[in-house]
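Practice set, problem 2.
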Amino acid sequence: MTASQSPSLLGRIVSIVAAEQTYRNLAYLFLRFPLGIAYFTLFFTGIVLGIVLLPLLVGVPILIGVLVAADYAGVIEARIADGLLGVDVDWTPTDPSALSVTEYAKTIVATPRNYGLVAYFLAQFVVGVILFIALTTGLIIPLALLVAPLVFWIPGVRYQFLGGDGSMITLGPMEVENSLSTGGFDMVLIDTAPEALVASVVGAVVLLVALHVFNGVASVLGWLAVGLFDAGDQNR
């Protein structure tokens, strides 16, 4: 029974590489960075400008505009999550055509979820930066190790690990470096075919682990999106 289950388990672990949803998840995670910058620029600027101009009363419509922007940005976020993560989320903004300007402004201000959306969009900047660093590190390094048998012999390619000055991978014009000192560890330089094969196996394992971790992170973010947007629609 164990023998028959092992290939199935191995298959589930490895099949993540061929799964379309894996790359949809990665696309969603990578989008957190540019979208996070855009959201932070829009909402942080709007909030600061609105607060500064509050004494002149101009800040009031600006702050209301921030909430309106969050209301409509929720539509974009819900569609991205639905399209890439495959989660069932929907967000319907308050319809301004069904209300007077005053009633619309009151509704926007009195809707608690709009404030939650503003906080969510501001947090996307931090989330995006962390994910960008994690994705580039977690994908580039194992991929560089994976192709080691094909490129280690090429002039200008250098794999150096655990040296006193840290670890470094140089692939022609591209260089990935970890400047953290490793103390008393001796330097490992990959410059033979057997070493390159071992590095390739290590890269494959690390890549599989990274993909599973990123899929898990995407699932958590999808769960949060469902909780935020669906609950927001119910509270309208």
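Problem 2, part (b): a different protein.
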Amino acid sequence: MTSNLPDLPETSWKTRTYMAGGLIGLAVGLLSAYFYARASEENGGGRSAQSQMSSMDILKLAVALLAIVRQITDLGSGKK
């Protein structure tokens, strides 16, 4: 019965890499948002967390994110 089914195309390494990166990014993003909301509720008494972030905090997060992306890119280049 299964011999009549067409073969599925081989998944390329790029597709697998994109899928793994997307899933890891999704998991890390959701976990980060959960911890941020939880800490904001505990420390702020339920106030709006979005208004508490300063532009300096956002800039620090952006620089840290760029550093992580650069490290991941260096892993892919194979340089030692």
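Answer key, part (b): The mean pLDDT is 85. The radius of gyration is 20 Å.
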